[in-house]
Amino acid sequence: MTTLVHGTDLVILVYFLALNSFYALLLVLSIPEIWEQTRLAEDDDFQRLMQSDALPPITIIVPAHNEEATIETSVTAILTLEYRNYEVVVVNDGSQDQTLEALRHAFDLYEIPRTYPEAVPTQPLRAVFRSRTRTRLLVLDKENGGKADSLNAGINASRFPLVIAVDADTLIEPDALLRLTRPFLLGRQIAAVGGTVRVANGCPVEHGRVTDARVPRRFLPGVQVAEYLRAFLFGRLGWNRLGGNLIISGAFGLFRKDHLLAVGGYRTTSIVEDLDLVVRLHRYLLRRGVPYEISFIPDPVAWTEVPETSAVLARQRERWHRGLIAAMWEYKSMLFNPRYGRVGLIAVPFYTFGEMLAPLIEVLGYVVTIAGAAAGVVSLSFALLFLLVAWGYGMLLSLWAVVLEEVSFRRYRRPADLVRLVLFAMLENFGYRQRTVWWRLRAFFTVWRQRRVWGEMTRKGFEAVGSRAPG
Amino acid sequence: MTSRHFLVIVGLVQALLLASLIVLIILNRWFRLRRRARVHPRRVALDAVMQRWALGQADVGMVLLRLARLPVSLAVDALVSWSARVPGDRWRRLAAELAHQWWTRLVRANCSSARWWKRLEAARFLSIAAVPADAARVLKLLRDPHPAVHIAAVATLERLESAALATVALDRLPQLAATVGAYYAGMLRRSRPVVVQLLLKRLARRDEPALARLTEFAARLQEPALREQLTALALHGDPEVRTQAVRALGTFPHGDSIAMLTRTAADAQWAVRAQAVRSLGMLADAVTLPLVRDALRDPEWWVRLRAGLALTRFGPAGRNALLEADVGGDRNARDMAHMILGFSSQALAEFAA
User: Fold this and answer.
1) What confidence score (pLDDT) does residue A45 get?
2) Is the torsion defined by CA of B123, B127, B129, B130 positive or negative?
């Protein structure tokens, strides 16, 4: 018993040290990256670029399924972005509510014949609409096939070489597209680029725009602000330097259409289509020796509503983790495979062992330690001290994300918001993180039972969010 | 030292780091607010003086004085934002005056800095305030390895006419990614006379490795002086060069252009045929109508699409051709004509764009 407990503890300790050392590496790498990105973001002469014809034309694809509450606001906001040459393709994915009617009414739609080939197979199209009032807008009405299927339908209908997938509940900042194309303008061989997704809960919203960045007062959405900052500002920035960003957010990511078509578009059977797509893109481009970058840039911002209740959040996190497990299993041949360079040797192993297996190992650690303490083979005070150090490290990482935010973009201008952000960053490790571990652990059980339950996100609509905003 | 002691030390270090990070956040916020309180009024004062100077109500000396009071990076930002609002001659006088300012000498010296952001600052400054004496500096920045720097530097062509600068930019153009190339092309268009002379020489060299990109750029210029060269390139061995040349010919309503387009409409490559049919539509010469109508039966969908769209530019005769094809015997032509006739005028305009 003693040997077993000590052996397991040793494995967990080594895992803890290796994982946290890697986080420390990401943290260090995020510093020069944010330095460069901030400089470029500040120095860009956007007026000049907007007047030039160098900006690549972009198709924005907006999949919509039962988005009646937010669709008009979202599409209106997207149609008024500061960008010269873009089109918006809204895909109504067999909504059972009045999404299509809301669009028809708001944008004076009229039916047109379909004029493009079906490069990626999708569920049948019912109709294609143009707008009498908004020339950039194209609306597809199709049978329900899921988000990935809708995105594929949007890719088929797109006319431009770059496509961006935007969730209907996502609010893009007016200059976000312009900023997102910066790597293309800098001549880099970009296959995909992602921007920052921030939490809209608690922020006032007018005409589909977040007018003021706020940190929500409620714990659950508030703590997700810190969580999102950590995930985007230091995690993904660090991965930029390691050359292996595996996640471009499905809510806000720009892709080269030819690469999307080459890999067959989004996989309709995947649980988390954005992760699956990016890993497939890496695999495809590395196999063919195509030089490319899949980058994250922090200054283009999209705002999204995050779950405010534990039940919805639990479903969302469980689904994300199921997607991670499915993707890592699907692409297991890339694991430690030198053929895939840094992606195969660093990124995929990290996501497999550091992200996918993390909840299993963390829970195993808790169980073994408690059992060991009960049996008297582990010192309780030592175990608590270890736990405290582990939590302290988590707090340091979250707080570091707040520091990066403060030295770079400083969206949360009010001192009260900053105080709340610091508090949430510190409190995240007490209770919230353990709950996410439990939700992620449940994903293993679900996968084991081969259940494919999709979490449903309950939307309130942004105007409602705005009206609840404090002072 | 026991593992317990080690953990205690790690915990204490963490606590110290946590406290330091919180202090860093507070100090950073305080420092920035203080800096803003100090600098913002100066920027407002500069904007006010700039406005009066732009209207001819203030002396340039006042502007220089206000600029010197700002931190260099903010002064460059202010100049960049005002450069688009002040007319050319007036701005050139300001640029000449700025050349003698102490702080602009520092900015110019940054052209050789080891730090790319300093070179970027220099490039941005020179892009709006370069004088002829800066040509060597701008040349250096145009050859800079950091893309942000050479992209900022190429904007100098908007304000400074120099054959040397245009030559370097044109040399670099074919090696650039399409997006950056388009930006360079936009800037090079400002130096049209110099660029046209350079292009005449480069396009005459049939073994020029970057001929396709240069032809594409030449097509965008829509310069009559290049028409003969472009007409000759429509028979080049490289299909990409032919495609670009044929696209360019659509902007020259000339007998030679029409003759060449008629010939290339039967090219073995569908991309060339599609472009030739499109260009014939742009010229809309009645003589070529039967040729474009025949292209509706081309085996390639894209050629048929271009032919259908081209016919809409021929007026009633083109529409009649589409109506005939819509009820004709050829299935490909019928389908395409049916689709084109179903387009709204708005959709047609978008396709034409």
Assistant:
1) 60
2) positive
